[in-house]
Amino acid sequence: MCPPRPSPLQNRVLPTGEIVAERARGMFTGNRGILPFTDGRLGTSKWKHQHWIICDLTHPKGRYHGPMPARAWTPLFFLDEAVGLAAGHRPCAYCRPDAYRAFKAAWAETHGQMGHLQMDRLMHKTRVTRDRQQIQHKANCANLPDGTFVLLDGQPHLLLGGHARKFTPQGYSSSITRPNAMVEVLTPAPTVATIGAGYRPKLHPSA
Question: For 112, which DSSP code?
Fold first, then answer.
């Protein structure tokens, strides 16, 4: 008899900002600092600094510190880049320099020229409250750019063209017509503007 598979760590980030235990890893990893685990579950702290970034799964120098490093950043995982953006992250300048430069250029179109410290401070104010709740905002769904996440019938959906694709941790499932109505937007407002200015997040093949 095969031994039971160990329970997955609580390190998968959802578009709602929640961090859950999920076996599927997705296309990207990310960094919020060193987050301690107890029996595979995160404690109260869900970040250690404001520099929330989206990284490649493979380190540029081939380094890997493991899923629960004691002295290195704790890897979190996203289905794709649109999920990471919705959760309040941005592209990493070190391991994804082309994506970072494209994001920074599109950001400048709507927010003005900023360094990463300024961007991160502004993003932090618009992604999470002091009691660790995701900040959501309202907008007309018809006017939002592709790659934005919204809540429809209480479920996260990715907007693409005239459709909205329902999110699951394994990929996107059913598609519905994009509504022409006010909706709750999960992607932080500054990031929505950046996507609208031309940044194109990398999407999971199921999209």
Answer: -
Task: Report d(CA 149, CA 127) in Å as an integer.
Answer: 13
The per-residue pLDDT for range 41-67, each reduced to its tens digit, is 998 889 999 999 999 998 766 666 666
Which residue is listed with tokens 């959760």? Answer: 87
* Between 38 and 83, the higher pLDDT residue: 83
Ranges of each domain in the chain: 10-196
Burial class (CB in 10 A: 0-12, 13-18, 19+), 157: buried
> How do beta strands 53-56 and 90-91 pair?
parallel
139 bridge partner residues: 183
**How, if at all, do strands 137-140 and 90-91 pair?**
unpaired
Give the integer Cα–Cα distance in Å for 76 and 156. 19
Neighbouring residues of 186: CB distance < 8 A, sequence distance ≥ 6: 15, 16, 17, 86, 134, 136, 149, 150, 151, 156
pLDDT digits (tens, 9 = 90+) for 168-185: 999 999 899 999 999 999
Other beta carbons within 10 Å of 61: 6
pLDDT at 25: 80
